[in-house]
Sequence to fold (331 residues):
Amino acid sequence: MDIAWKAIVGHEENIARLRAMLREGKLPHAMLFTGPEGVGKRRVAQALAAALLCEREEGSCGLCPSCRALLQENHPDFHMVLPESRGKSARIIRMEQIRELQGEIARLPILSGRRAVIIDDAELMNDAAANSLLKTLEEPVGDVTFLLISGRRSSLLDTIVSRSMPVGFGMLSVEAVAELLAREGVPAEEARELALLSDGSIGRAGKLRAGDGMSLRNDAAEFLWQLGTMSMDEVWCRGKSMGEWERERVSGWLSYLGMLFRDMLVLCCGGSSELLYHQDLCPQILGALADFPEGRIFSMLRLVKETQHRLQSNVNLRLHMEGFLIKVKDL
Ligand SMILES: [Zn+2]
Fold:
């Protein structure tokens, strides 16, 4: 894992505040990092955990035994809890995982004199896991710092939120995403194009670049252009085939659809094409506006959001996508 502060782009204010609190010994024992997906919340949490555990005053030096152990991903006092998926079911953090963590942190730290715990996608704890963690947050034992990360704060138990100090993260700027991509060796022009489509998320830019992101985006766009002429049967078949996709892929497809709707709204309201996510599709989006009055776009956008939200729980993917596409066609 990367532990260096300087490797992080953006979030300067949060980082300055966290480092000051650490220096002054005022870091609370539980913090909740919230904000959009893929903007670097986990990177900041990792650097903070490294700084907490580092032997040197400046924190996350990269050289002391603690930092070296973290870099080799075998630090005995650092714990990372992530949601796990079983088969095709949605990812979830189960009570066994929290129990196991509690067993580990109950023992004395081995290397750093304290422990640091990161729980990523904390909203994916099921109720039993969340309630179990709550007990630990209410009655902390030893010197343990919890860094909870969540893209959806509203899905967390209120009692967990109220036990943690909130740290809000915003979107990255287009420039910041482009810079991060450039650091990975992406040519400038491509970096800019990906950054525009990324919606301020380096995570999304990475997906666009790596997997079938761009073709997924194009698939969502094609669907939209063809929607008017598709028969109900075709829409139905489409839902059936998307039901076979990985959940994450469906969610990515829906995000692109949502971004296309937002681009339509921008153009509807007379906004400049420079404000678009899909600048390369500007002519097609303009052309499609005749079939999509403003009210319809708003309804579709709402439907996309609702469906994305529901996909987070263990709904039947195929039934859900069939239902979604038919509603979109009917609007
Ligand atoms: Zn160190």
The CA atoms of residues 179 and 274 lie 19 Å apart.
